[in-house]
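check these tokens.
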Amino acid sequence: MTDRSRIPPSLYPFADHYLDRGGLRLHFLDERQGEPVVMLHGNPTWSFHFRALVLALRDRFRVVVPDHIGMGLSDKPSDGQYRYCLQSRADDLTALLDHLGLDRGVTLIMHDWGAMIGMAWAVRFPERVARLVVLNSAAFHVPADAHVPAALHLVRNRALGALALRSSDFFIRTAARTCCTRRSLPAEVLDAYLAPYASWADRIALLRFPQDVPLVPSDPSYGLVSTIEAGLAQFRQTPALICWGERDVVFPPRVLEIWRDHWPHAEIHRFPDCGHWLLEDAPDEVAARARAFLADRTR
């Protein structure tokens, strides 16, 4: 169980909610009322990553932010209790939105692997999607001319890399340092990011996420990513906003160009001095862009 005392209420002033997933607790935020806005994080972040957006939007929207199983304040089961893969993540999201009755008018705000999870749901239920917001992420196969970070190969293919990731909080500390380029994280913010991942057992999902990233057709999630990529075209009439930190060490500029190829209609805002954790580098600016985008398209 995550030590909640390490997460200052001043930074994360939200009520906890839980959904039972076959005996596992999926934690989520569910703030206020209005049209639903669902925010989806990646690795190694959790719902805490969206705190500025939640505060900025909850006066007008119903903001729902899950912690994926194994992440944040959700349960952290062993491999024998949960299958850590993209399909499981998409199934968890479907179960949550069905449980909450969010069957229309959903806006997705997605970062990192959260875009793959969100779009896996969206291509299955396009009639339930109203708007799409992308923050430094991919929902397609990344081509050879867009580099794959060396750290991904290390944890996927080397026992030493996997051991290092689970043995300490070095991975999260390194991510915080390299993914924020405009400013360093305050100590209490970094400590809140670290709080859910205090032990070897707590860090299982941090490893399983990169191990599930499909690079070749024989990888288990490759087929689902192909389905997601093929389904992106059906959202060319769906309002879309892309906010992009251009000093991203995970997704190079080529990935943004792929998004633009898929969604030429999307409104794009570039942040030249910001990194992969755009919401830490420029939270107020992104929140203002998101509010304006949603306000212009609120029915």
In short: The chain has a mean pLDDT of 93. The CA atoms of residues 20 and 296 lie 36 Å apart. The chain has twelve helices and eight strands.
